[in-house]
Amino acid sequence: MTAPGSGASGEDCLIARYFRPLAVDPGAFELGDDAAILKALGQDIVVTTDAIVEGVHFLSNDPPETIAQKALRVNLSDLAAKGATPAGFVLTLALRAADEAWLEPFARGLGADSSRFGCPLLGGDTVSTPGPVMISITAFGRVVPDKMVRRSGARPGDRVVVTGTIGDAALGLDILGGGRVAAALAGDAAAREMLVGRYRVPQPRNALVQAVRDHAHAAMDVSDGLAGDLAKLCAASGVSAVIDVPGIPLSAAAVAALKAGAVGMEALVSGGDDYEILCAIPEDGFEPFARAADVAGVAVSSIGTVIAAASAPKFLDAQGRDMPLPRLSYSHF
Amino acid sequence: MTAPGSGASGEDCLIARYFRPLAVDPGAFELGDDAAILKALGQDIVVTTDAIVEGVHFLSNDPPETIAQKALRVNLSDLAAKGATPAGFVLTLALRAADEAWLEPFARGLGADSSRFGCPLLGGDTVSTPGPVMISITAFGRVVPDKMVRRSGARPGDRVVVTGTIGDAALGLDILGGGRVAAALAGDAAAREMLVGRYRVPQPRNALVQAVRDHAHAAMDVSDGLAGDLAKLCAASGVSAVIDVPGIPLSAAAVAALKAGAVGMEALVSGGDDYEILCAIPEDGFEPFARAADVAGVAVSSIGTVIAAASAPKFLDAQGRDMPLPRLSYSHF
Q1: Per-residue pLDDT tens digits of chain A, which is 333 residues long
Q2: Rounded to an integer, what is the distance from CA A252 to the centroid of its chain?
Q3: Residue of chain A whose Cα is closest to the Cα of B53
């Protein structure tokens, strides 16, 4: 992704017009070179990459602004969960055509979030494709050397903590597809809009970076479903967990959808796209963590306990019975 | 791209089997976390990203090994031109299906080049797509602080230098499409194979990294065609150039295709996919640069001179006449 010189093609001109304003970091050279420079500033560089594909992670008729926001935010969410402060990102954009009516709002949405989260564009590549639009972002963060929060540090006795609410994005996707949730919430436009918003525009918890770094033994973001992602965190840590299902935080809209029978709890805990932080916090760290979260304006909920076991995490209902989970999370293949 | 825990999906298992062996850097955590750590080791991190798309940058029936090699090498070529030593890469792989008969040789080709160029896999993402296969790689290099070789440093009087030979990959693509070059070289299987190889498997000039860093005022890799890329380098540097067309290095196969009238010189200098280094070397730096290149086993050719002008670079034939260039380079849109 390079801005035009006198050898400028149509591609170069589009890049200059829409993306150069986002390249505010000096290391991006205003997109005028083949590569960018990222200064580590004495820290570790944390690297994460996530792609979103039309028809898979977003819908063709989603607003371009929110597609851009989602593409960046799913990566910011990973940085947040790792305790890393955003440093920049590179973008690969595969498009069928250089449609300015799409590119302009896309770049506007991307630019707004790039500013909001302090994560400047460092470079990229645009390619043509006859297939679905695909946006691949690699994002960079900085963290104190050797202090990246891993998946693997959870210890027996830690609290299992999640931010925000779980399952909203899966409900939003159902609504966009005209599913049962849309019918159940037919009378509540605000609830439907909130859920669709949660699907389209994740709320990465970067405001919690410092608290995660200070207090979490282990953390990851919930992108493929709480149940599956918790299983991954436990496996990486060599532990298990017991989750109190009634303690899992739900939005009022999700509770309404549950009560109407439009969705089951197992679908909420295995639905994808939450982009909340799941972490293991030692008992004596929970209070300061919760206090820091309160200051940051992020809700956090203690939903269970890490235990010493090799078995899969258990999800127990109000009666203490195992909740059956036919699938743990979304899988691409 | 994370290896499986007990919440493993089919996607996770495929990643583990084929890609974990490539994640030899400790910062990759064996693909067992959400992000990787890249240590700057007191240097600047150079970041570049390039994607290749089925039907655009490679053909559906190209061998998976060479598709993987091309995906990595187009990025390694950028690092080489910037004077950066490879440090690692992340991979986004968009596939229609998890076809192991394709993934196995793809990962094998990727692994071989990852070892060969000292550029370990740090992480990635696999997504499903109904469209063409797309491989997006973001590669990282390290360079002495503030010593990345820019496009913008060329000065009047510098020699314009390229590595290797120009135009071979464009001829290889023509051969794969059964074009006029295929007919012209019908009797020379070795020449056809060499040209196809140049299209499928670029030869990034990472062996020249130190020489580029030591001697080049400006450099970039030739990916979209020599003429267009030279125009970009000149524009970034605020200079122009005069190129001696007969001095542009051609392979024997390209000379044969030219002589047979299957291709014109202007197509060779505007064809894409060369992945050679184009650089501006001060007169007194050329001899040590050429000596270092000789030691590295890379051919380099002085093809012209940087001049103080705002006009587009001129390509002069043996009679000193301007060569008309109907197009300078490949553009996606």
Answers
A1: 544 444 445 666 877 889 999 999 999 999 999 999 999 999 999 999 999 999 888 999 999 999 999 999 999 999 999 999 999 999 999 998 888 899 999 999 999 999 999 999 999 999 888 889 999 999 999 999 999 999 999 999 999 999 999 999 999 999 999 999 999 999 999 999 999 999 999 999 999 999 999 999 999 999 999 999 999 999 999 999 999 999 999 999 999 999 999 999 999 999 989 999 999 999 999 999 999 999 999 999 999 999 999 999 999 999 999 998 877 775 544
A2: 21
A3: A129
Where, residue-wise, is CATH 3.30.1330.10 in chain A? Answer: 10-143
Q: Does A329 touch chain B (CB under 8 A)?
A: yes
Report the distance separating Cα B41 and Cα A241, nearest Å.
38
Classify the complex by whether its ipTM is higher than 0.90, answering yes or no.
yes
For A20-83, give the DSSP string.
GGG--SGGGGGG-SSSEEE--TTSEEEEEEEEEEBTTTB-TTS-HHHHHHHHHHHHHHHHHHTT
Tell me the fold of B159-316: Phosphoribosyl-aminoimidazole Synthetase; Chain A, domain 2 (3.90.650)
* A55 CB within 8 Å of a chain B CB: yes
- Which pTM does this prediction carry? 0.94
Q: Indicate the fold that domain B10-143 takes in CATH.
A: 60s Ribosomal Protein L30; Chain: A; (3.30.1330)
Residue in chain A closest to B78 (alpha carbons) equals: A34
- Chain A, residues 203-242, CB within 8 A of chain B, namely 220-221, 224, 227-236
- DSSP state for residue B94 in the 8-state scheme: E
B132 contacts B54 by C-beta, under 8 angstroms: yes
Best residue of A18, A25, A49 to probe chain B, by most B CBs closer than 10 Å:
A49
The segment(s) of chain A belonging to CATH 3.90.650.10 are: 159-316
Query: Closest partner residue to A94 among B53, B123, B126, by Cβ?
Result: B53
